[in-house]
Amino acid sequence: MDHGKNTQEAIAHQFATDGYVTGLPGLTQKEVVDCRNRIDAFRQARPNDVAWAFDIKCNLLFDWVYRLCCHQALIDAVTPMTGDSIYVTNATFRIKHPHSAQAYGWHQDSARVQVDPCFVIVFLALSEQTTENGCLEVIPGSHTQVHPFQIIENRDGQDRRRVARTDNVNTSNAVPLELAPGELAVFSGNLVHGSGPNQSDNERVSLLIDYTPVRSKQNIGQGSGQLVKGHDPYGYIAQETVPAGNCLDVDVINRRETLSKWPENPLMGPLGKDGVISFPDSGTIGF
How confident is the model at residue 157 (pLDDT cuts 50, 70, 90)? Predict the structure, then answer.
């Protein structure tokens, strides 16, 4: 048995026990700088588009984000948990400005739309992640079931979005996942997690990417994604296209059509009784 296989087995064992692994190698410092430069360039060129473009399924909008999702280090990090055939089903930036009150209460991403086997989330640090700047915190072992939760109007993360918040979380064993730029944490979509405000002088920048095994089924609706490794003999997950460029009009329209056709994903939740589909969008392009 070679060292690599030992490492993969150890990672898979810890993940099965705790619901997460952390401190894994990801991007080089050069790659981190390149990502930060791309983020800053978009914010400077299109400041009014940042709120919706860096949100749900930004892997459908930016070709460079899609390439990040296909990065070998990230694929290698999730394969011990997902198997060799996987979709990327979401990518979302989480950026906390210096001294921002923005925080995310305790929750499970899979609470409202359950996925079996559950998707795995890569938390990619694009800046230093510390307790002071509101790093990700997790509750070890909380991933074995969906816990009771409440649906609330979000007051801590994205405005005007209904979100699930886990009831009665015992935070006595909460673990802060402090990371250096380029490092990864990998956790189950069933893991209870959250983060506090940024009390530092620096931005906290991260990208979260959901990787879903091809054999996964949702209990509500149908998922959609980009097949980034292996093949899909099941057809449970609808196929998404790859972005044409850096948030071009065609990419905006494609994401709008994708979220309109397959709206019931873990981040957006099930449709309400009124059947209205709501997601962050430019509102100025296409239909």
Answer: very low
Contact 84, 229 (CB under 8 A): yes
Q: What are phi and psi of 198, to 5 degrees?
A: -90, 110
CA dist 25 and 229 (Å) reads 19
| CATH (domain of 182) | 2.60.120.620
Residue 93, amino acid: F
Element (H, E) at 35: helix 29-45
What average pLDDT does the structure give for the chain?
92
Count of domains for the chain: 1
Q: Is 106 exposed, middle or buried (0-12, 13-18, 19+ CB in 10 A)?
A: buried
Q: What are phi and psi of 71, to 5 degrees?
A: -60, 135
183 in a structural domain: yes
Interaxial angle between packed helices 72-82 and 3-18, expressed in degrees from 0 to 180 and rounded to the nearest 10: 60
Q: How far is CA 264 from CA 46, 114, 135, in A?
A: 29, 10, 28
